[in-house]
Amino acid sequence: MGLDINWAVDWVRRSAEVVAEHRVELIRLDRDIGDGDHGENLDRGFEAVVPKLDDLAAGSTPGDVLKLVAMTLISTVGGAAGPLYGTAYLKAAASAGTDASLDGSAVARMLEAARDGIVSRGKAESGDKTMIDAWTPAVDAATEAAAAGADASAVLAAAAEAAASGAEATEPLVARKGRASYLGERSVGHRDPGAQSSALLLQAAADAASESTGA
């Protein structure tokens, strides 16, 4: 079963809820190795998106929802998170196109486009202790699941699980990008806040898909 506009809207609402729930945690993680504003900025961004969902035109698609998220985050979220997440959602929207429903393969391609957008914008790669360390395992798991014939919900579940493991795996890494890179070895032992928020958002997508399909 594919994922439609209802899933996309539910994903955004769940994203706002999970970011608000983990706002203090994300602030703490970012304070450890960054400037401490990640949780606050992301919470403000998604809080701004939610009311706009009610203004979506009839016949809107998942891609339209993703584009709405992108433009709102770019205009309201400061720091590095705004441009990075904004680009991710914008590229995901372009990948989703005008399709009213997304199957497993389409979801995998959408996640890959989002990841590639982050890479293009932030110039980071796996092992740099950034959100890419959550996104790349997620994309790999999603692509593998889709290739095996998994439906959209299962693809997102695989991506979310891999992202959570990827975020945890940033703890022993030395940061090589962003403000955290200035700490050098002192960044070891701290989880990257962007990787953690990425894992939370992908879990929200998987939860929305599970609810949507009854999986």
From TrEMBL:
GO terms for molecular function: glycerone kinase activity. The keyword Kinase applies. Residues 6-207 form the DhaL domain. Coiled coil: none annotated. Its EC number is 2.7.1.-. GO terms for cellular component: cytosol. This is Dihydroxyacetone kinase-like protein. Keywords: Kinase, Transferase. One of its GO terms (biological process) is glycerol catabolic process.
